[in-house]
Each structure stands twice: as C-alpha cells, then as structure tokens.
Design a protein that fits this description.
This protein is mainly α. The protein folds into 2 domains: 72 residues, no CATH class; 164 residues, Tetracycline Repressor, domain 2. It is 69% helix and 0% strand. Helix 4 packs across helix 6 and helix 7 packs across helix 8. It is globular and about 60 Å long. The chain starts with 19 loop residues before the first helix and ends with a helix.
C-alpha cells in the first residue's frame, strides 16, 4: 500500500496565496489529495470492517488523524468521499444498463445486478457508505443528505427503463421518478437484510443462502411481478431455488 503520510504544511490555501493560477493549482492538488485519502480509507474499510474509529482509519491509511481532518470535516465527510468513489465505479455500468438495446425488465435486472454485485464484493464498504450516526456530533443531518445523494444518483439511472415502460403503457412517464425511488429503497432494504443473514457477502454459505446473482434475479422478479413472482417464479429463479 502506498503511504499517504506526506502532506504539504497548513496555510497553503490562505488568501495571500497570490495569483488565480496558483490558487487553482492548490485546489486541484487538494482535490487529488482527498481522492488519495478516500481510496486509502476504502481499502482500510474493505479489509478491516466499517466500525473503524477515526484513529484506526488514519493508522490503516498510513497517515495521521490531523491530516485526515485537514481534508474531511468529520467521519461523515470521509464516508461521503468513499461513497463518491463507489458511485463513480458503478456509474458506467448503470449507464450502460439503462441505455442498453434490450427490454426494460432486462435493463432493470442488469442494474439490480450491478448493485448486488457491489454489495457482495465489499460488504464492509457498502455498510460504511450507507450507515448514519458514526460521525461527529451534529453530523447526522449531513450523513443523511449524503446517503440521499447516493440513492438519488442510482435512482436517476433506474428511472430510464421505467419511464419507457410507462410511456409504452400510455401512462404518465413522470411517475417513473417516484417508481425509481421505490425500486432503490426496496433493493437497498433487501440487500441490507441479505447482508444481515450473510455478513461476509459470500455466495456459498452453510445454510444455502442465495448468491448475489440469484438475489438479483429474485429481486427483479419481485419488483416486476409483485406477489405473482412467488406463485410463478421465472426459470432463472427456479434454477437457483
């Protein structure tokens, strides 16, 4: 792991810095340092779990807590930055699924699969970026706002195939935004429960819990066909039951 200890001294971003060019260079440097620290935090959480204190996070990131606080106001800010990294990685896959040349249901399945795979690959990171109440006093509102942004970003992609469904049915496509929010909330709820039953995120467990891929099949059925999915499972669901 590359060390992130070295850091320019405080005061480089003061008002007497000089020209706009120097200020822009400092802003770019600061943004890059935040990304480096966020990546280090993500690695630490992935390997050691979401319950690390700020002292433990800084140590795992190979830096000092004072440097972490120089770039992030509190733990909620660090959670937000890690969440941004996750969203950036998911964005291309979500966009490709949303605009694929396939039926809306298949596009929805692809997006649910992206979400489920992310949870399975790094359940610790998922818990870290979606939990609230870990930050400094008074940060709960900020954490809720960042969590809402995480969900809203995903909802925007999910809305695309749902809008196509409503338009084809002659319904108001503007209802797709509310439908998408419900879909994301449902998927998150099921994912949280799945992680609670399957904390390691592994596909093979002693009591035959579903893999992430099977979970995506089931969730898509539940979303698309409601209670009928329990009575008439698709071939994909039957194969994994």
């Amino acid at each position: 792991m590359n060390s992130v200890t070295a850091d320019p001294g405080p005061g480089r971003d003061s008002a007497d810095e000089g020209t706009d060019g120097r200020s822009r260079r400092w802003d770019a440097h600061r943004a890059e340092r935040r990304r480096v620290l966020a990546r280090a935090a993500r690695r630490a959480v992935h390997h050691s779990g979401p319950d690390l204190s700020m002292d433990e996070l800084a140590a795992a990131m190979e830096t000092s807590k004072s440097i972490v606080y120089r770039y992030f106001a509190d733990k909620a800010g660090l959670q937000s930055a890690v969440g941004e990294l996750v969203l950036e990685e998911m964005a291309e896959a979500f966009d490709a699924a949303a605009h694929a040349d396939s039926e809306p249901r298949e596009r929805l399945r692809a997006m649910v699969g992206v979400y489920a795979s992310m949870i399975a690959r790094s359940p610790h990171v998922y818990r870290f970026i979606t939990r609230t109440g870990d930050g400094a006093a008074g940060s709960g509102g900020a954490q809720l706002a960042e969590l809402s942004l995480f969900q809203a970003t995903i909802s925007a992609s999910v809305e695309i195939p749902l809008r196509d469904v409503l338009a084809a049915a002659g319904s108001d496509p503007r209802l797709a935004s509310a439908w998408a929010v419900g879909v994301v909330g449902f998927v998150r709820g099921v994912g949280d429960r799945w992680l609670g039953d399957n904390p390691t995120g592994t596909a093979d467990t002693s009591d035959d819990r579903p893999s992430a891929d099977t979970l995506a099949d089931l969730v898509t059925d539940w979303l698309w066909r409601g209670a009928g999915a329990f009575l008439h499972p698709t071939s994909s669901s039957r194969e994994h039951s």
